[in-house]
Specification:
The structure holds two protein chains of two kinds. In chain A, helix 3 runs antiparallel to helix 4, helix 7 runs antiparallel to helix 8 and helix 8 runs antiparallel to helix 15. Chain A is mainly α. Chain B is built from two helices and twelve strands, in the order αβαβββββββββββ. In chain B, the strands form two sheets. A seven-stranded mixed β-sheet of chain B has the order 2-3-6-12-11-8-9. Chain B has a single domain, classed as Sandwich (Immunoglobulin-like). The chains are: A mainly alpha, B alpha+beta. Chains A and B meet through helix 2, helix 5, helix 6, helix 7 and helix 8 of A and helix 1, strand 8, strand 9, strand 10 and strand 11 of B. Strand 3 of chain A pairs antiparallel with strand 10 of chain B. The structure holds protoporphyrin IX containing FE (HEM) and copper (II) ion (2 copies). One copper (II) ion binds next to loops of chain B.
C-alpha cells in the first residue's frame, strides 16, 4: 500500500509530519494566495497613488475598476486561499493525520481558481465596477457574481475537507487527548466559514439571477443586511485564523503554552456564539431599522466577540511572557519583551500584527460600531483606515510571519535574503500603521471613501476640504508606498526561496507515522495554576484600555458638538 | 510547545485560570457593559440620535413630493443649471433627492430650528455626508428616511456623496446654507 494517501515525511527541524497529498494542496493554496497578493499589491500601488491627491495617478474609470479588483484580490482571494492552506495545515499536519478526500480538496482548489478568473475577468472587462460589496441596484456583469459563487463553493468544500480530516484523525487516533488549541482555533474559523458562506449564497445567488434578468429587483436594504451577514462574519473567520496563528507562533518561537486552555478556547467559542447579526454595525447609519435592533445587535453580538479578542490580546503575549520568564528573563516588567527575538521575522511580524490589530483596528472598530458614533465616520475613508488595521496589519501580517516559518519546512528550501526578511515586517507593519492612522485622520475630517477626486473637479458646486485633509492623504500616499514595498519584499523572499533557496536535505516519504502527544516535560511543567504569571502583559493591557477609554469618550465629546439630530 | 500540542488535560474546560486572565476578563467585561449602556444613555440624554423613521416609497412619488416643496418655497436659483434654493418655513418638511450625480435641490435652513429632512435616492445607493460637520447617512432607493435636524451653526455647508454610485460619484456634491434668522 504505497499509494500517496499513506505517505508521510517528518521535517527534521520542526518535527512536523507532512502528509504527501496534503502537502501538495497546502503548497497550491499558498501559492495561489501569494499570486493574489501580488495582483492586489500592484493594484494597491495604483489606487494609493491615485488617492494621494497631489499625484492622482489614473483616471476615474480605471480608479474605480482597480479599487474593485484590489478589494476582491486582497480581502477575498489572498486571505481565503491562505486560510484554506491554514486549515489543511492545522488539521492534517498538526494532528499528524492524513487529509480527508484529497480529490475533493483539489476540486475545491480548481473551483476557487476558476471563480477568481471568472470574477476578475468580469472586473477587468470594465462592466463590473461595483466594489467588492456590489450593492444593488448598481449592476455588474453576471460573471462577476458567478465567479464569486464558484469561489465560495470551493472554499466551502475546503472547510468540509478540514472537518473530515478532524474526524479521520480522531478515528485513527493520530493524537492523544483533545485537539491542540491552534486546531481548535482553526475549527472555529471553519465553523464560522460555513455559516458565512451560507449567507453569501443566500444573497449572491439571487443577485446573480437578478443580473441575468430572472429576478426583477432586489431590495437594497435586505441586500445590505444579508450581504453584511456574510461580509462581517468573514472578518470573524480572519480573526479566528490570525489569532490561531499568533498562538502557533508563540508556541513555535518560544515554546509558549496557553496560560489557560479554558480561557483561550472559551474565547474562541465566543466568536462562534456572538456573531450572527454582527452585520448590524454596518447598518447603523441606514434607514429602516429600529434603534433597539441596532443597539442590541451591535452590542451583544459584537461586544462579546470584542471581549474575546481582548482576551486573546492578553493571553497570547501573556503566554510568551510566562515562557520567557521561565527561561530566566525575569528582570523588571519587560525584560522578557526586550530579550525577545526582534530580528526573527516570525516573531516581529506576529507581535506587530497583534499590537496593530488591537490598538488601531480594535479601538477604531469598536468606536465605529457604536450606534450614534457611527454617523461621524460612516462611509468616510476612516472605514478603510480601520479595516486595513484589522485585515492588513492583523491578518495579512500574521500570515506573512507564519510564512517565514512554513517555507523551509513545507518547501524544503532555506529562505533567501534573511537580512532583508528581518526588515520586512517592520517596513510593512509600521508603514501600514502610519497609513491606517492617516486614513482615519482624513476620515475624521470628512474625506469620503471610494472617491476619485476630493477637489470635485467639474462639479457645479465643489467643496474645498481643509488643508489637513490633503496632508493626511499625502501621508497615506507615502506610507502606502512604503507598505507596498514591504509587501513586495515579502513576495520576493517567498517566491525567491521557493525557486532558488538552498535545498534542505530531508528524509523521504514513508508510511511510518507518529502520534501527536503532549511532550512529557511540558506536561509536567504545565502551569495553568492560579498564578500571576504575566505582570508586564497586564500593564500593557491596562495602557491599551486607557487608550481605548480615552478615544471612545473623545468621540462622544465630538458627537455632542454636531447638529442636533432626533 | 503546547498551543500546537494537545492540552495537558483532556478536559480542558476544567483547567484553572490565571489570576491575570481573570482580572482582565472582568475589567474587559465591565468596559463592554459601559460601552453598551452609553448607547441607550445617549438616546435619553444625548442630542444626536439618528431617527429611524422610514417609509417605503418610489422614485416617482418622492420626486413629486420634492417638487411640491420646491414649487412653494424656492427663494432663488444657483449656477447655470438653475438649481433651486429652497427655504422652507422654520420647522417644516424639507426634501432632498439623491440621484446620479447630484443632490437636489439646495436647502437653506435657519439656525436653531428643527426641520424634518426627507431623504431618498432615485437610482442607486448614495451617501449623505454633511461637511465640514461630518454627519454621514446612507441613502437608499425605495426608502424615504425622515430625520429631524437642528443646525447649530450658521454658514455654508457641503453635501458630499460618500457611497460609490458609479463613474460620476466624485462629482456628486452640493451646498446647504444655514442662516441666522
Ligand atoms: C500593501 C498595502 C496596501 C495599500 C497601500 C492599500 C491601499 C488601499 C487604498 C488606498 C484603498 C482605497 C480606499 C478608498 O479609496 O476607499 C484600499 C481599499 C481597500 N483595501 Fe487596501 N491596500 C493595501 C493592502 C490591502 C490588503 C492586504 C488588503 C486585504 C487583506 C486590502 C483590502 C482592501 C479593501 C477590502 C479595500 C476596500 C475596497 C472598497 O472600498 O471597495 N488592502 N486599499
Ligand atoms: Cu451618489
Ligand atoms: Cu456617490
Amino acid at each position: 500500500m504505497a499509494d500517496a494517501t499513506n505517505l508521510f515525511r517528518t521535517c527534521p527541524r520542526t518535527g512536523l509530519q507532512w502528509h504527501k497529498p496534503s502537502e501538495g494542496l497546502i503548497k497550491a493554496n499558498a501559492v495561489a494566495a501569494v499570486v493574489s497578493l501580488l495582483i492586489g499589491g500592484v493594484l494597491a500601488l495604483i489606487v494609493v497613488l491615485t488617492r494621494w491627491q497631489a499625484v492622482h495617478l489614473v483616471g476615474p474609470e480605471d480608479f474605480y475598476m482597480y479599487l474593485t479588483a484590489h478589494g476582491l484580490a486582497m480581502l477575498a482571494y489572498w486571505i481565503i486561499f491562505f486560510e484554506i492552506a491554514v486549515l489543511y495545515f492545522a488539521s492534517s499536519t498538526l494532528l499528524k493525520s492524513r487529509l480527508a478526500a484529497p480529490r475533493w480538496a483539489w476540486a475545491a482548489f480548481a473551483l476557487m481558481v476558476i471563480g477568481v478568473v471568472v470574477n476578475l475577468v468580469a472586473v477587468f472587462r470594465g462592466d463590473s465596477t461595483v466594489m467588492f460589496t456590489s450593492y444593488v441596484p448598481l449592476p455588474a456583469n453576471p460573471m462577476f457574481y458567478l465567479g464569486l459563487i464558484l469561489f465560495a463553493v470551493g472554499a466551502l468544500i475546503g472547510c468540509f475537507v478540514f472537518l473530515g480530516t478532524l474526524v479521520i484523525a480522531r478515528a485513527e487516533k493520530t493524537y492523544e487527548g483533545s485537539i491542540p488549541l491552534v486546531t481548535f482555533g482553526a475549527l472555529t474559523a471553519a465553523i464560522i466559514a460555513i455559516f458565512t458562506i451560507a449567507s453569501g449564497a443566500i444573497i449572491l445567488i439571487p443577485t446573480f439571477l437578478w443580473s441575468v434578468g430572472y429576478i426583477k429587483s432586489i431590495d437594497p436594504l435586505t441586500y445590505r443586511m444579508i450581504w453584511w451577514g456574510f461580509g462581517h462574519s468573514s472578518q470573524q473567520i480572519n480573526v479566528a485564523a490570525h489569532v490561531s496563528i499568533w498562538y502557533a507562533i508563540a508556541a513555535i518561537v518560544f515554546g509558549a503554552k496557553p496560560m489557560s486552555e479554558r480561557v483561550s478556547r472559551g474565547a474562541f467559542l465566543l466568536y462562534i456564539l456572538f456573531l450572527q447579526l454582527a452585520s448590524a454595525h454596518h447598518l447603523l447609519s441606514d434607514p429602516g431599522f429600529s434603534s433597539e435592533w441596532k443597539v442590541f445587535n451591535t452590542s451583544y453580538a459584537m461586544y462579546l466577540a470584542v471581549l474575546a479578542s481582548m482576551i486573546h490580546g492578553l493571553t497570547v503575549p501573556g503566554a510568551i511572557e510566562v515562557a520567557q520568564r521561565e527561561k530566566g528573563f525575569t528582570k523588571g516588567l519587560f525584560e522578557w519583551l526586550r530579550k525577545a527575538p526582534w530580528g526573527n521575522p516570525v516573531f516581529s511580524g506576529m507581535i506587530l500584527s497583534l499590537v496593530g490589530f488591537g490598538f488601531l483596528g480594535g479601538i477604531s472598530g469598536v468606536m465605529m460600531g457604536t450606534e450614534q458614533l457611527n454617523m461621524l465616520i460612516h462611509n468616510t475613508i476612516y472605514v478603510p483606515g480601520h479595516f486595513h488595521a484589522t485585515v492588513v496589519i492583523g491578518t495579512t501580517l500574521a500570515f506573512m510571519a507564519v510564512t517565514y516559518f512554513l517555507v523551509p519546512t513545507l518547501f524544503k528550501r532555506e529562505l533567501i535574503m534573511p537580512g532583508l526578511a528581518k526588515w520586512q515586517p517592520y517596513l510593512f507593519g509600521v508603514g501600514m500603521m502610519v497609513f491606517t492612522l492617516a486614513m482615519m485622520g482624513a476620515g475624521t475630517l470628512g474625506v469620503p471613501r471610494r472617491h476619485w477626486d476630493i477637489t470635485f473637479a467639474g462639479a457645479a458646486l465643489p467643496y474645498e476640504f481643509p488643508g489637513a485633509a490633503w496632508l493626511m492623504l499625502g501621508i497615506v500616499g507615502v506610507s502606502g508606498v512604503i507598505a507596498v514595498v514591504g509587501g513586495a519584499i515579502y513576495i520576493l523572499i517567498t517566491v525567491g526561496s521557493i525557486l532558488w533557496g538552498k535545498p534542505i536535505q530531508v528524509s523521504g516519504y514513508s508510511t511510518e507515522r507518529g502520534v501527536l502527544k503532549m511532550p512529557v516535560a511540558a506536561a509536567l511543567t504545565g502551569h495553568g495554576h492560579a498564578g500571576f504569571g504575566a505582570p508586564g502583559t497586564f500593564v500593557v493591557a491596562l495602557v491599551f484600555l486607557a487608550a481605548f477609554v480615552l478615544y471612545y469618550f473623545v468621540n462622544w465629546k465630538y458627537l455632542s458638538t454636531v447638529w442636533g439630530l432626533s | 510547545m503546547s498551543a500546537i500540542h494537545p492540552p495537558a488535560q483532556r478536559i480542558w474546560w476544567k483547567q484553572p485560570l490565571d489570576k491575570i486572565e481573570l482580572a482582565w476578563i472582568l475589567i474587559a467585561f465591565v468596559w463592554c457593559l459601559v460601552m453598551f449602556f452609553m448607547m441607550p444613555y445617549w438616546h435619553v440624554y444625548g442630542k444626536q440620535n439618528l431617527s429611524n423613521e422610514t417609509y417605503r416609497t418610489t422614485p416617482e412619488i418622492f420626486a413629486k413630493k420634492t417638487q411640491e416643496v420646491v414649487d412653494k418655497h424656492t427663494v432663488r436659483t444657483e449656477t447655470e443649471e438653475k438649481i433651486p434654493v429652497v427655504r422652507p418655513p422654520a420647522g417644516g418638511d424639507v426634501y432632498l433627492i439623491a440621484r446620479l450625480w447630484a443632490w437636489w435641490p439646495i436647502l437653506e435652513l435657519e439656525k436653531g430650528k428643527t426641520y424634518r429632512l426627507h431623504l431618498s435616492a432615485m437610482d442607486y445607493q448614495h451617501g449623505f455626508s454633511l461637511q465640514p460637520e461630518n454627519i454621514n447617512v446612507q441613502v437608499l432607493p425605495g426608502y424615504e428616511h425622515v430625520m429631524n435636524v437642528t443646525p447649530n451653526r450658521s454658514g455654508e455647508y457641503a453635501i458630499v456623496c460618500n457611497e460609490f454610485c458609479g463613474i460620476g460619484h466624485h462629482k456628486m456634491v452640493s451646498k446647504l446654507y444655514v442662516v441666522d434668522k
